[in-house]
Amino acid sequence: MANKPFHYTALTKEKDLDVLINEIGDARVVMLGEASHGTSEYYTWRTAISRRLIQEKGFNFIAVEGDWPESYAVNRLIKGYQPASKIADVLQVYRRWPTWMWANWEVAALVEWLREYNNQHKVGEKAGFYGLDVYSLWESLDQIVKYLEQTDGQAAEATRNAISCFEPFSRDPQKYAQATAFVPTDCEQEVIEMLQKVQQQRIFSDDPEQEFNTKQNALVAANAEKYYRAMVQGSGESWNVRDGHMMETLDRLLEFHGPDSKAIVWEHNTHIGDARYTEMGDHGMYNIGQLAREQYGRENVKLVGFGGYQGTVIAGSSWGAPMQKMDVPPAREGSWEAMLHNISTDDKIILSRDLQNVPELQRRIGHRAIGVVYDPKIEMFGNYVPTIIPERYDAFIYFEDTEAVHPLRMKSRSKEPDLYPWNY
Asked: What CA–CA distance (Å, rounded) separates 127 from 164?
């Protein structure tokens, strides 16, 4: 592949995104990936794409790989459901490690744009911001009690019962997961009863989305309990619980926003790139990209991967470790990123339909994936996911040199070590 074997579009300015916007066409769901959780270019260019999708194609919301309660606080800010606050102050709600994923200046710029955009539009036309992830068990339970204590005593009592079941574990998911592995008791029934009670209620508030928010917190709590029980088994089942919850949340958001609604999803490539075209599928694992294609039809879902050749990144040396700015070495020879580097040093947009006649790409090749835990010294022995690129994505955006994301400085809520073997 020394010569240019397929067409690509050099990416130097926002206008160059035209080829991608045209490729997206009338798709209902667009998923924008990232090869790490700590690279500035992935955030800034996803913001540029998202702005155009919202302005030009009427997309209704951005859903991210973040917790629901914290992301909903951002949604309230950008839609004016709460008094005006400094954006950096609101982003301080992201206190679960790794805080830099959403508490960073690149996200602050996105939030500022969303707030300004929404200030110019009526209530039903405002763009939203939501979290798809499943980790916020206790935070979601706390949110439910907070709202139901003023509206429905029976549902609030069911939530308090669920919380009391978890109290012996000191809000520590690891303790709860390990306990359920050795003792044939858990809090599943209490959480299910709470979910059923909450789903039956009508909730009234100055916030027009408060009923959806409360019921979503109940769903998060139920699925988080299931996730933590599955995690201790050390299999791919916890991954499937997590991505299944993400897909269920995306479904609920699209239904809530109406039959013509459109969604933008920001997650790691490992979630948005169709799992069937990686070794994940060999192990019975699926992800939100695969599930969305299966549910909405491949023509209605566009999956856009991101990656780079070399640069810097924010990550931790272990789970819960202090964040560091780390060097990302040149991509491993023979990998997807090295192939793109060898073609040219341009930043570029590649459409998968232009890769169909490239024999080297019709098989699995290494494709770099950096998680929140990273060690550049041993990258050559890992961090590469065998991938059939033209099938995993509909398009790919490549950067020759990347820069680390710019975090808002804060301390994390808890380290929760050893609980998350999947750090994407």
From this structure: 37
Who's near 338: CB < 8 A, 6+ residues apart? 309, 330, 331, 332
At 61, list the tokens.
């919301």
247-275 tens-digit pLDDT: 999 999 999 999 999 999 999 999 999 99
Q: Do 174 and 35 belong together in one domain?
A: no
Evaluate whether residue 248 is within a structural domain. no
Expressed as residue numbers, the domain containing 166 is 137-235
> Is residue 299 in some structural domain?
yes
Q: How far is it, in rounded angstroms, from Cα 96 to Cα 98?
A: 6
The residue among 235, 251, 278 that closes a domain is 235
Helix segments in 135-281, DSSP class H:
137-148, 153-166, 173-182, 188-199, 210-231, 237-257, 269-272
- Cα-Cα-Cα-Cα dihedral of 8, 12, 14, 15, to 10°? -60
Write the DSSP string, 339-377. Answer: HHHHH-SS-EEEEGGGSTT-GGGSS-EEEE---SB--GG
3-state secondary structure of 127: coil
Residue 102 sits in the same domain as residue 43: yes
DSSP 3-state of 45: helix
Give the three-state DSSP class for 322. coil
Cα separations in angstroms, 383 against 40, 378, 407: 19, 9, 23
As for how many domains the chain has, the answer is 2
Q: How far, in Å, CA of 323 to CA of 312, rounded?
A: 13
Residues 274 and 213 in one domain: no
pLDDT digits (tens, 9 = 90+) for 16-68: 999 999 999 999 999 999 999 999 999 999 999 999 999 999 999 999 999 99
